[in-house]
Amino acid sequence: MGGFPLLPDSAGRRVFVALGDSFTEGVGDRSKHLPNGVRGWADRVAEKLAKAEPGWEYANLAIRSKRLRQIVDEQLEPALAMEPTLITLYAGGNDILDFGTDMDVLMAEYENLVGKLAATGATLVLFTGYDVKVSAILEPFRKRNAVYNQRVRELAAKYGAVLVDYWCLDAYHDRRMWDTDRLHMSKAGHKFLAAQVLDHLGVPHKFKPKAWEPPAPIGLREWERRQRRWIHEWVLPLFRRKLRGVTLGDSLKPRWPEPVKVPPKGGLRKLIEERES
Fold it and tell me: What is the spatial distance between Cα 206 and Cα 169, in angstroms, rounded to a whole number?
């Protein structure tokens, strides 16, 4: 699987469909010009595909906070109807953070989804989850993440999928690769992941890692201040939403619900400008 150029189907079509949650929607990579106010690694991959091989179409059905069952119910059939030649999937991360999740049940549902996507004959890209070491508050969920990652690796091998082993990417040890919530990638993090996906597919690009100076050390008082602010602004609202049964994605629609032909020059922002003109 993989290796550029990604082969079109028998009709000469090249269609990239991205499925998932906030990871794939692009949360953390803000852009006031694009749908839902974000850009993300998948948009960047679509633009590089179109630049390298004009004619690529792109749909992104991912919405923040979606659980695996919602991704299956809301995104699978629309994706299959698009007859994709390239599919990316990250799903299950929000389930891992839910109380009472049965990992055996979750991964059985995940395999069922992967099997249906692989049966299309499209190039399928899967991702492990990152081992985010943000606070002892979230430490109980790390074991679930390890189980998830091992099963994703096994399923990628079983179904012949391209595996982007996000867990192993050392660049994400730098806190600047993360947004202020510490759970979603920053713009730099999304760019780096786009480069990883493109490298796995053999697609040329010019993304380069940030040449940062080492982060400045901080004192205990500043560390405590940042921890309190993070808990107040992100952790507590997260758990309140869980208790109320609401999510940040409840009122949102997919950013690119139908395949759009990506302009080789100007990318998706040019497409928006053309629509608004």
Answer: 19
Peptide bond connecting 5 to the previous residue in cis, omega within 30 degrees of 0: yes
In the numeric block, the tokens 């500043």 are attached to 222
Say which residue the tokens 């055996």 belong to.
Answer: 104
Q: For 151-202, write each residue's pLDDT tens digit.
A: 999 999 999 999 999 999 999 988 899 998 888 999 999 999 999 999 999 9
16, amino acid identity: F
Right CATH for 14-209+253-269 from 3.40.50.2000, 3.40.50.1110, 3.40.50.1820, 1.10.10.10:
3.40.50.1110
The structural domains of the chain, with segments of one domain joined by +, span 14-209+253-269
Contact 98, 69 (CB under 8 A): no
Residues contacting 73, CB < 8 A, separation 6+: none
Spatial separation of the C-alpha atoms in residues 173 and 171, rounded to whole Å: 5
Three-class secondary structure of residue 97 per DSSP: coil
Range 245-254 contact pairs with CB under 8 angstroms and sequence separation of 24 or more: 247/64, 247/65, 247/66, 248/22, 248/64, 248/65, 249/21, 249/22, 249/25, 249/63, 249/64, 249/65, 249/66, 250/65, 252/36, 252/63, 252/64, 253/63, 254/59, 254/60, 254/61, 254/62, 254/63, 254/75
267: phi then psi, degrees, rounded to nearest 5: 60, -155
At 87, is the secondary structure helix, strand, or coil? Answer: strand
Q: Kindly report whether the global pTM for this prediction surpasses the value 0.70.
A: yes
Structure tokens belonging to residue 264: 């080789």
As beta bridge partners, residue 59 has: 17
